[in-house]
Structure formats: C-alpha cells, structure tokens
Amino acid sequence: MSATGVSFEKTKSWLLVDCGEATQHQLLKSGLSPYHLSVICITHLHGDHCYGLPGLLASMAMSGRTDPVYLIAPQAVVQFVMSTLGLTQVTLSFDLHTMAIELSDQFASFEFCHIEIIPLKHRVPSFGFKITEAQIPRKLRIKQLHMEGIASGPHYNLLQKGQDVIYQGQQLTAKTYTFPSWRPRIVIICGDNEKPSLLSSYCDDIDMLVHEATFTHPDLMRVGIHTGHSDAKRVAQFAQQYQIPALILTHFSVRYHGEGMIDALALEASTHFHGSLRLAYDSLVLTVPKQLLSE
C-alpha cells in the first residue's frame, strides 16, 4: 500500500503523501509521530492510496493533536474522508482544512515547505506533488557587513532570523545581508501515472523523483496501457534524460512479489538509468543530501 512520509530538518512537522491501508500501523515502526503530521497529500481516489486515511485521522485525534491538519486531495477523496468520519461519528480534536485540488490553485505554502501540484494521467484524476524545502537556516554575509561598517550587535541575530532591521537610521534587509545555508531540497512524489513525460516541465531543479513502476516494459505491453500505469524502462529513461540525481521506484505489481521476483524491475531500470536508483520497500528511509552554499 502506498504511503510516503517527508520530514524536515528544522521542525517536527512532517508531510504524508498517500495513506493506504495499515499506514498508521507502519508508522508505529518509524520515527514519525502521527501527532506531528501537519499536511496530507493524496494523489488519487483508488483505495490503495487512501483507505487508511480516516483511521489515521481518528488516531491522530485520540493522540490529542490540536494543531490544524491540512488535506490536499482530489475532490472525491475529500468527500470520501468527510463522509466516512461523519458516518462513523468521529469527532476530530483539530481543524481539518481541506483543499480539493480541482477547485484550488496548484500551489500551497506552509511554514516548512512549498507544494506544487502536477496533473498526471491515470484511469481517474491523479496527481504528483513537487515538495520544496523551506525554513533553511540563513548565514550572514560577514564580509559585506564589515565592508559597509556595520558593527556586530543584536541586529546580526535578527538579520540571521530573516528580519529586516534599522541600524543607525539605515534599513538593513535580511535578503541583502544573509543567504541560505544550503540550496532548498526538492522532491517529486507521484501517484499512479501512465505518462512520465507529463513531468517534463517540473524536473529541472529536483533532487529526487519517486514514481511508480508497476510493470516491466514487456509485461506492460502484454497487459496493455489501459491500466494507466508506467513501466520501469520508461520511467528510468525519463529520469536519465532529465539527469535526475535520484530515482525511487514504487508500486510494483503482485506478479513481482516473492524472492528474486523484483530483480526484473531492478535490472530493467538500471539498464536505462545511471543515477542513484532504489526500489522501495516497507520502512525504507532515505536522506536527500544538501548542496551547501557559500557567501
């Protein structure tokens, strides 16, 4: 079942993309607490991506969460969640703010990240989420400050926190005198998607792509593209074409379950993609490396 957590360096808040059955049980084995789950993004209506959500929300309420939770999902998923909570008489201890994708802007910003929504192609409306890190610590441009005769003091600390200040009657802007410690890290996490090429205009600056590879290419050709899924070859070729540093493949057909069966997907993908390649498994944890910036 699909569920991918994204955590951030400077906050306990985290984000979840999709919530298949038993997601909350898997969370018990992880370092991610449902109490701190702030944003939930659901890619599409199919049950293997959203059936776990009502139960997870109920458990979050039982854990005592009171801070708001944001749900970004297709309109049908929002209706499913609200109907299920209502019919089962669940009262949440927090405000659940819903954003139906079809009725909203394709961007959402939070304190710890920015999200861009990417339309994909599947048998039902399906989407991907481009997640950009925020809350990056800032460093002072010490040389510039010294050259301009701006002595150290409390205003240094305020600038580093991103606040503009007044120093000896002169306004100092944080944008001018500080810079981010590292380049914002960016990942794209996709729902089910028949056409990897739909991501073409979103991939120039990303660090990692998480994409389904339900079949090998020969198997997909036999089954038929009407399934609305991708194969390892086409996803790998796309990632190689756009020089994506890291590719994570997910959502494998049950025909590849069992010892050694997934090797065919791994071999096909590695033939066409030469970056960092991983085939996802339960409880896999990956760290997106930083690209440090200098003054």
As laid out across the biggest beta sheet, the strand order is: 6-7-8-13-14-15-16
- Overall structural class, as computed from helix and strand content, comes to alpha/beta
Please give the CATH architecture of the largest domain. 4-Layer Sandwich
Can you summarize the main beta sheet? 7 strands, mixed
Q: What attributes characterize this protein structure?
A:
295 residues, alpha/beta, Metallo-beta-lactamase, Chain A, 2 domains, 7-stranded mixed beta sheet, 5-stranded mixed beta sheet, 10 helices, 24% strand
Write structural notes for this entry.
The chain is of the alpha/beta class and 295 residues long. The protein has 2 domains: 232 residues, Metallo-beta-lactamase, Chain A (4-Layer Sandwich); 38 residues, no CATH class. It is 26% helix and 24% strand. It contains 10 helices and 16 strands. A 7-stranded mixed sheet has the order 6-7-8-13-14-15-16, covered by helices on one side. Strands 1-2-3-4-5 form a 5-stranded mixed sheet. A hairpin with a 2-residue loop joins strand 10 and strand 11. Helix 9 runs parallel beside helix 10. The chain is globular.
Topology:
Blueprint: E1 4-7, E2 14-17, H1 23-27, E3 37-41, H2 47-50, H3 53-62, E4 69-73, H4 75-87, E5 96-100, E6 107-109, E7 113-119, E8 127-133, E9 138-140, H5 142-147, H6 154-160, E10 165-167, E11 170-172, H7 174-177, E12 178-180, E13 186-190, E14 208-212, H8 217-223, H9 232-241, E15 246-250, H10 263-272, E16 276-279
Parallel strand pairs: 2-3, 3-4, 4-5, 13-14, 14-15, 15-16
Antiparallel strand pairs: 1-2, 6-7, 7-8, 8-13, 9-12, 10-11
Helix pairs in contact: 9-10
